[in-house]
Design goal:
The complex is a heterodimer of chains A (311) and B (166).
Chain A: H1 14-33, E1 36-44, E2 58-61, E3 69-81, E4 86-91, E5 99-102, E6 106-115, E7 119-120, E8 128-134, E9 140-152, H2 175-195, E10 201-210, E11 215-220, E12 224-236, E13 241-247, E14 255-259, E15 262-271, E16 277-279, E17 289-295, E18 301-310
Antiparallel strand pairs in A: 1-9, 2-8, 3-6, 3-7, 3-9, 4-5, 4-8, 10-18, 11-17, 12-15, 12-16, 12-18, 13-14, 13-17
Helix pairs in contact in A: 1-2
Chain B: H1 12-32, E1 34-43, E2 56-60, E3 65-76, E4 82-89, E5 102-106, E6 111-114, E7 132-133, E8 138-146, E9 153-162
Classes of the chains: A mainly beta (311), B mainly beta (166).
């Protein structure tokens, strides 16, 4: 922040002017350089078998908007199973992976593998998917996939350029003009920082085997966040649908109902809130962000995934 | 930032106005860069003998994040149960939690009990401990129940990252 304030009836000290220009440039450049934000999705894979329908072993992600820069920067695979087999995770983008894991034949011993390789999430209408497959008969007693996301808040339609001030000295013959130029450049850089505000994060909620009229609820402490979109994926017999409702202080109108397209296909739907800014006390459960997935239909939901995008 | 251009004379008031505007907007941006997010573990049932593999989740941090709140919420009528959630560094290491054991618990569960009625799981206080989960380190959330089985259990960590200069 600016170290000096100028008052009337004192000499104009150009070193102080320069100090302020440099401090402003330093702050705004530091802000703009902190362009990447990270978050993690955790897909639950409890109960998956080598013979599970492919769609139940496949985990999708799409970015929330066309201007959002989202990439996957790491994947962790954790499996507990009673059989020693090789489970392999492949990506729909063939430049990634695969990630293979030879499990320990113990339902209580963790088998773990990770791959820190980047792959873009280029579309808001088509999915990047990760699919699990086993080399032999095996049931995942417990397990999960952690997908790490990196988003770039500087690449969303706004310029990301910083600012380097030209300093004023005793040889500056047109100080007013020069100061105008420098302050205009500072103001423009500050505006770019202000515009690059959407630092996306994502959280994932998984439920399997959700019976008719059943529901699953997650609670997130409110804190400081702005909810942008919910994406729901659903796998279930035809004529079953499910609703993912996101409620809480500051959230208005965020609910998505997805109608399943059969037990071998993945249906998807999205919704954006009409109001979403949240600044509440995370210690007060009454202010929690509540994610509720309800089975509204006549058949069991084989798998529902909810991706909640926020900044 | 509302710029006031100089018109012939460089005045202190104009300089002050311009730099104050920049400072105010940068301060606003700095505050806007504080964003919270959550890691959660949800179980529909938690029994006393449940294998560790079914009541734990581990994750590697890809960026530093301050721990804000560590909370536990249990719904059941088993008044005799004590449920404990623990945050540890994976593989038994402790150096990145300053050798602290970070745990919270709830007891006398008869309905829904939320640990956030206690300040012990509030890591934002000026007098209590504060710590940061470090990039590249794998951490683990674990939950267990003693004395009785319980129903829906949610364990969560609220984390904060700062995407602007503080």
């Amino acid at each position: 922040m600016m170290p000096h304030r100028f008052v009337d009836l004192s000499n104009l000290d150009m070193e102080k002017v320069n100090d302020n220009l440099e401090a402003g440039a330093r702050d705004v450049n530091r802000n703009l350089s902190k362009r990447y934000t990270y978050s993690s999705l955790i897909y639950n894979i409890d109960g998956i078998t080598d013979g599970s329908t492919a769609v139940l072993r496949t985990f999708p992600i799409r970015r929330p908007g066309t201007n959002n820069a989202v990439e996957i920067c790491g994947v962790e695979l954790v499996i507990f199973t009673a059989t020693a087999v090789t489970w392999t995770l492949t990506c729909s983008d063939s430049t990634w992976g695969p990630l293979s894991l030879l499990t320990t034949a113990s339902a209580t011993t963790e088998s773990y593998a990770a791959r820190n390789q980047s792959v873009p999430v280029p579309s808001s209408s088509a999915d990047v998917t990760f699919t699990l497959a086993a080399s032999a008969a095996s049931t995942v007693t417990a397990g999960y996939i952690v997908v790490h996301l990196r988003t770039d808040r500087g690449d969303q339609g706004s310029s990301h350029a910083g600012y380097t001030p030209t300093l004023v000295d005793s040889a500056s013959s047109t100080a007013g003009s020069l100061l105008d130029t420098e302050l205009t450049a500072l103001a423009a850089a500050v505006s770019r920082d202000t515009a690059n505000a959407v630092d996306l994060r994502c959280e994932c909620f998984t439920i399997r085997g959700l019976v008719t009229t059943g529901s699953a609820v997650w609670r997130l402490p409110s804190g400081v966040r702005t909810v942008h979109q919910v994406t729901q994926y659903l796998v279930s017999p035809v004529a079953t649908d499910a609703t993912a409702a996101i409620t809480g202080t500051g959230i208005v109108g965020l609910s998505v109902t997805t109608t399943a397209t059969g037990s071998t296909a993945r249906a998807v739907n999205t919704d954006t809130p009409t109001s979403s800014a949240i600044v509440e006390d995370p210690m007060d459960p009454n202010d929690d962000v509540i994610v509720t997935v309800t089975n509204d239909g006549a058949g069991t939901v084989d798998m529902a995934l909810v991706l909640l995008w926020f900044s | 930032m509302a710029l006031t251009p100089f018109t012939g004379t460089v005045t202190a008031a104009t300089l002050r106005s311009n730099f104050d505007d920049a400072t105010a907007q940068l301060t606003t941006n700095s505050i806007a860069g504080r964003k919270d997010w959550t890691h959660t573990l949800r179980l529909t049932t938690l029994t006393t003998g449940l294998a560790l593999s079914l009541r734990t989740v581990a994750f590697t941090m890809f960026d530093d994040a301050e721990v804000r709140v560590f909370f536990l919420r249990v719904t059941d009528t088993a008044a005799g149960a004590t449920v404990t959630a623990t945050l540890t560094q994976d593989e038994g290491a402790t150096e990145f939690l300053l050798d602290n054991t970070v745990s919270i618990s709830v007891a006398a569960i008869n309905g829904t009990v939320d640990s956030r009625s206690s300040s012990e799981d509030d890591f934002r206080t000026t007098t209590g401990p504060r710590f940061t989960l470090k990039r590249g380190v794998r951490y683990r959330l674990t939950v267990a129940t003693a004395a009785a089985d319980v129903g829906v259990t949610i364990v969560g960590l609220q984390l904060r990252t700062r995407r602007r200069a503080a």
